[in-house]
């Protein structure tokens, strides 16, 4: 009886289909993509190339639900795009047992504008435990870099030709300074007595608040009583 064939792990499947050395973008790829006259198709080419490069680094990557994809022997192909609501790619990355969500924007323009940075800041402001990745094919200004410093969540800028190093960049940031993301805290209260609220719904004072639990990024603390 022939030996049982070992089933490939998810990581082996991903890196097998998307070999990093084979899929990473070259200067020739960038030049040829910029020569595409149709703006939509040019953008689609960047998104597909980015998806392949990110998956090859074992970064979970998906296109937004507005994209219709088709799986072929050659890999993933884009069939139709309806509109992405500002997000082109999204997924998650696990570093040192910490899983971080991420959203991405792809811009195949000659110059990356400051508007893109502001838009990403807005998207991240309502997403806890999420970083942003902006992938571009043209050039960027020093002012664009400085705008990242005022973001409440980390935003990584990566030229498509350098995207094959993005995992190392995120890992380095995590080990040196830590990853900065928005946090949202939810509070659950079982019982309150004689409570006064301000106009924004915040508690000003109460005779008793019983059995309170808080939740941050889905992690709950132990229940406790306050003002008892």
Number of strands: 11
Gyration radius, in Å: 22 Å
How many structural domains are formed by the residues? 2
Distance between the termini: 71 Å
User: Count of DSSP helices?
Assistant: 7
Protein name: Restriction endonuclease type IV Mrr domain-containing protein
GO molecular function: nucleic acid binding
InterPro entries: tRNA_endonuc-like_dom_sf (IPR011856)
What does this structure look like?
InterPro entries: tRNA_endonuc-like_dom_sf. It comes from Diversispora epigaea. With 228 residues, the protein is of the alpha+beta class. It has two domains: 146 residues, Trna Endonuclease, Chain: A, domain 1, CATH 3.40.1350; 43 residues, no CATH class. 29% of the residues lie in helices and 34% in strands. The strands form three sheets. It has a five-stranded mixed beta sheet, with helices on both faces. The longest helix has 18 residues. The protein starts with 9 loop residues before the first helix and ends with a strand.
């Amino acid at each position: 009886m022939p030996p049982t064939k070992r089933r490939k792990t998810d990581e082996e499947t991903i890196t097998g289909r998307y070999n990093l050395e084979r899929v990473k973008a070259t200067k020739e790829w960038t030049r040829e993509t910029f020569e595409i006259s149709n703006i939509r198709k040019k953008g689609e080419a960047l998104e597909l190339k980015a998806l392949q490069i990110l998956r090859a680094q074992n970064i979970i990557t998906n296109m937004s639900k507005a994209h219709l994809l088709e799986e072929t022997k050659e890999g993933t192909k884009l069939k139709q795009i309806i509109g992405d609501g500002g997000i082109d790619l999204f997924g998650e990355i696990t570093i040192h047992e910490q899983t971080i969500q991420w959203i991405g924007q792809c811009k195949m323009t000659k110059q990356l504008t400051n508007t893109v940075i502001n838009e990403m800041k807005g998207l991240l402001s309502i997403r806890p435990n999420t970083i942003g990745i902006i992938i571009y094919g043209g050039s960027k200004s020093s002012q664009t870099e400085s705008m990242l410093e005022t973001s409440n969540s980390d935003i990584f800028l990566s030229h498509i030709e350098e995207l094959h190093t993005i995992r190392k960049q995120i890992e380095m940031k995590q080990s040196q300074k830590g990853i900065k993301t928005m946090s949202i805290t939810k509070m659950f209260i079982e019982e309150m007595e004689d409570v006064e609220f301000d106009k924004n719904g915040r508690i000003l004072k109460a005779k008793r608040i019983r059995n309170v639990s808080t939740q941050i990024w889905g992690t709950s603390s132990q229940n406790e009583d306050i003002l008892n």
